[in-house]
Amino acid sequence: MDASDIQSDLSDVLYTADQIQNRLNELAAEIEADYAGRDLLLVGVLNGAIMVMADLSRSLKRHCEMDWMAISSYGSGTQSSGVVRILKDLNTDLSGRHVLVVEDIVDTGLTLAYLIQNLKSRNPASIGVMAMFRKPEALRSPVEVKYIGYDLPNEFVVGYGLDYAGRYRNLRDLGTLAPHVYS
Ligand code: 5GP
Ligand code: MG
Ligand code: MG
């Protein structure tokens, strides 16, 4: 595999780093208003949410804590199964905490549905969800995502934390891959 320029592997840039940051600033202001007077614990879902967690948390002009979970979907292929394995659990006790789950992208919402059910059993004071991107399929999911960055078309995207075969997470923009990458 060619280890050269990443940008040339994109066929389209859907959202630039600047657009993403501007949207995060708006969401951060909403979150500040909604969580005023309450302690806030951001829970990032590894690995995809690393970039959105870093940028959203630094857009907040208030205190917050951050913790991380790593999860992996069982099953093969590109279709989400909704059966999820916890690879790394939180270090924080959630009881009585106001938790905001920070996600990269919601597609079927199956991963998120499992995660929310799991976190609810730990007796937090509240659970909310923020996702940087949302696919059309997610609208049929029962999980409410209160804070959405951008709605996407039903295409496979990479960048801003999202990978293809482990790569492209470090791309600043979000885009679609050129056909030559797959072949
Ligand atoms: P869901 O359970 O909502 O169908 O899938 C959620 C997970 O699938 C995301 O956290 C992400 O890891 C992966 N995913 C869904 N859509 C995309 C996409 O377009 N590109 C990439 N790179 N990953 C995706
Ligand atoms: Mg994710
Ligand atoms: Mg992935």
Brief overview, please?
With 183 residues, this protein is an alpha/beta fold.
Give structural notes.
- The protein is built from four helices and nine strands, in the order βαβαβββαββββα.
- The chain is α/β, with parallel strands linked by helices.
- The protein has one domain: Rossmann fold, CATH 3.40.50.
- The strands form two sheets. A six-stranded mixed beta sheet has the order 4-3-2-5-6-7, sandwiched between helices. Strands 1-9-8 form a three-stranded antiparallel beta sheet.
- Helix 3 links the parallel strand 5 and strand 6.
- Helix 1 crosses helix 2.
- The longest helix has 18 residues.
- The N and C termini lie close together (11 Å).
- 30% of the residues are buried.
- The structure holds guanosine-5'-monophosphate and magnesium ion (2 copies).
- The site of guanosine-5'-monophosphate has 18 residues, from strand 5, helix 3 and strand 8.
- Pathway: Purine metabolism; IMP biosynthesis via salvage pathway; IMP from hypoxanthine: step 1/1; Purine metabolism; GMP biosynthesis via salvage pathway; GMP from guanine: step 1/1.
- It is found in: Cytoplasm.
